[in-house]
Amino acid sequence: MADTTTYETPGEAQFGDYVALLKPRVMSLVVFTAFVGLIVAPVHLHPLVAFCSVLFIAIGGGASGALNMWYDADIDAVMRRTKGRPIPSGRVTGGEALGLGLALSGISVMMLGLSANWFAAGFLAFTIFFYAVIYTMWLKRSTPQNIVIGGAAGAFPPMIGWACATGGISIESLLMFALIFFWTPPHFWALALFMKEDYHNAGVPMLTVTHGRQVTRRHIFAYTLVLAPFAIWLGLTSVGGPIYLTAAVVLNALFIWRGWQVMRRTDEQSYGDGHKAEKSFFKLSLYYLFAHFAALLIQHWVGV
Predict the structure, then answer these.
(1) Within 13 Å, how many C-alpha atoms sit on residue 210's CB side?
(2) Quick check: 38 and 170 in contact, CB under 8 A?
(3) What is the mean pLDDT of the chain?
(4) Mind telling me which residue stretches traverse the membrane in this protein (predicted)?
(5) Comparison of pLDDT for 144 and 271, the residue scoring more
(6) What three-state secondary structure class fits 207?
(7) Tell me, what's the pLDDT at 71?
(8) How far is the C-alpha of 284 from the C-alpha of 302, rounded, in Å?
């Protein structure tokens, strides 16, 4: 999920500034999808073990956010959306963010291994590395496919949750991964359509910068078409059922329709109404993912 949080003006560092380093809005989605992956798994954990597992996955997600903010401080200082973050605003130093990120990474991985299993802990360690190194340090600044490939980092949490319960991987967890993985590009590209100047000024090769808005609109629509079969396929596995399938069909029909509307837009139309359709699609994308995982949870609890 894109972090669109705004922050206070520069001043003395407060506890909230260190919390902001962990990207709590993004972490909330990590926690929720990991929780769903753990709950719908066929192996039921003791409630205390389940709670600790989700807690340490959340801490690992926060660690990734802190490492991302440490490395991206130069970019954040240029972008209007992020220049008020703790590091570019001067309230927290880069060294503090790096130290916090590394410490939380080690704690989360070790404690997840002790509370759940070491396969899940290794998976969490790989996810932190993928987000902090593969995406943040390499892909983000080098290719317009940054969001496409880097989106895997945000798609791993439900697989980690599933691994906490089962100690492995299955078709169900892979499809939960695919749901987030193919959702991520249209979600971020919709944001980039009305934040293009920020990415351009920061030198980030987002698709809108390298190929233009019209190409980006076509890519958004294409990904809504690719995404739908995976979302519906998940409903045909052991974790699916009529409740989830109904939600998936409705949500994906709406997502494709809104993607089609965005694709048909011109730059003149977008500028004329303040990117109304693009912002509407972006907001829908937030509800889209949450609703799918909520439907999985309801389907599991209802058991029909």
Answers:
(1) 13
(2) no
(3) 91
(4) 26-42, 48-71, 92-112, 118-139, 146-169, 175-194, 220-236, 242-260, 281-302
(5) 144
(6) helix
(7) 95
(8) 26
How many C-beta atoms surround the C-beta of residue 16 within 10 A?
A: 13
Answer positive or negative: Cα dihedral of 276, 277, 278, 280: positive
Is a pLDDT exceeding 50 seen at residue 289?
yes
How far is CA 86 from each of CA 17, 24, 99, 125, rounded to the nearest angstrom?
Answer: 6, 13, 15, 25
- 74-83 long-range contacts (CB < 8 A, ≥24 apart) are 75/202, 75/203, 75/204, 78/198, 78/201, 78/202, 79/195, 79/198, 79/199, 79/201, 79/202, 80/197, 80/198, 81/4, 81/6, 81/195, 81/198, 82/3, 82/198
Side-chain-side CA neighbours of 268 within 13 Å: the count stands at 0
Name which of 184, 186, 208 is nearest 195 in CA terms: 208
- Which one, of 85, 61, 91, 67, lies nearest residue 140 by Cα? 67
Instruction: Flag whether the pTM goes above 0.85.
Output: yes
pLDDT at 40: 97
Sole residue written with tokens 């220049």: 83
Longest CA–CA span in the chain (Å) reads 56
- What is the per-residue pLDDT across 238-285, written as a single tens digit (0 to 9) for each? 999 999 999 999 999 999 999 999 999 887 887 777 788 889 999 999
Joined together, the tokens standing for residue 178 give: 């695919």
Token representation of residue 209 = 């910068």
Q: How confident is the model at residue 201 (pLDDT cuts 50, 70, 90)?
A: confident
Q: Are 157 and 179 in contact (CB under 8 A)?
A: no
